[in-house]
Amino acid sequence: MYDRDLSALNLDDELDSPLDHLDEAPAPKPDPEKMLLLLASSVPEQRMIATRAFCEIQDERAIPHLIQLLSDPCPLVRVSAAYALGRNTSPDAVEPLIDRLNLDWNGYVRKGVVWALGNCADRRALEPLLEALKTDISAVRLWAASSLGQLANVGYELVISAIPPLIYSLRTDPIAAVRSNCAWAIGQLCRELPSNVVYAGAIDSLIEVLEEDEDMGVREDAKASLLRVGDPRGLQIIEELELDGLL
Predict the structure, then answer these.
(1) What is the pTM (predicted TM-score) of this model?
(2) Number of H-type helices and E-type strands within the chain
(3) Would you say 129 and 144 are in contact if contact means Cβ atoms under 8 Å apart?
(4) How confident is the model at residue 67 (pLDDT cuts 50, 70, 90)?
């Protein structure tokens, strides 16, 4: 991630995990005391080293500094601060993360922010994540879908609100990786639902994708979600498709 020109706005090929391109943390892990001091450094490179360190280490003392660094002039620092707040979660970070998602021109930063919001497991993240799923670049849409799935335990009303937009994206998003993450997220959310209309619609969408999506990876993720949920209708469809040699 860090060897690319972050001024580029076309980030649609950046669909991997937000942390995939962070350098491997040295062994032993960085000294939290030293890293806390570097968070306030006037040198951008030192601030970046410190924020990246807190992607690996957890220390609640870093949280106020990381929140401030979401507004750092250097996009590399903002990226790392977002990821670090995904590791060092706090209710206090949710609104600043949402503000950064709404304001930041940089797709790498927004991608890290939606990932962090999913880890925060806070109902305030619902609407910003839904908007990102609907309107942002594919790399951000992908992680918005996953983050919505991570909100499964936040509350029934949130689950009910999240499933219809995920179904829509599962059926219509042009990027297979985004559809795959929608399938995964729907499966996560369905596990928290009783057998109601929303649940039935979600299962219908997974079966539809299992039978019709042109991408095998999306179909496999739909199958995995149906297996995790254990819905009898879904399990029957899987068995029939396997017997016909279609899976």
Answers:
(1) 0.86
(2) 13, 0
(3) yes
(4) very high
Q: Give the Å distances, CA to CA, from 103 to 9, 50, 73, 93, 171.
A: 14, 23, 13, 15, 29
Q: 147 near 89, Cβ under 8 Å?
A: no
Q: Which residues contact 102 (CB under 8 A, 6 or more apart)?
A: 128
**Listed residue (200, 136, 135, 140) closest to 164, CA to CA:** 200
State yes or no: cis peptide before 91, omega within 30 of 0: no
Q: Which phi and psi (to 5°) does residue 232 adopt?
A: -60, -40
Nearest to 34 by CA among 49, 22, 16: 49
Query: Per the structure block, which two tokens stand in for 89?
Result: 């979660």
The answer to whether residues 81 and 70 touch, using CB atoms and an 8 Å cutoff, is yes
Task: Count the Cβ atoms, other than its own, within 10 Å of residue 168.
Answer: 14
Q: Describe the chain by its helix, strand, coil percentages, rounded to 5.
A: 70, 0, 30
- φ, ψ for residue 4, nearest 5 deg: -110, 165
DSSP state of 62: G
223: which 2 tokens? 């199958």
- Of residues 214, 240, 244, the one with CA closest to residue 226: 240
Residues 158/126, Cβ–Cβ less than 8 Å: yes
Specify the pLDDT at position 7: 32
Q: How many CB atoms lie within 10 A of CB 36?
A: 16
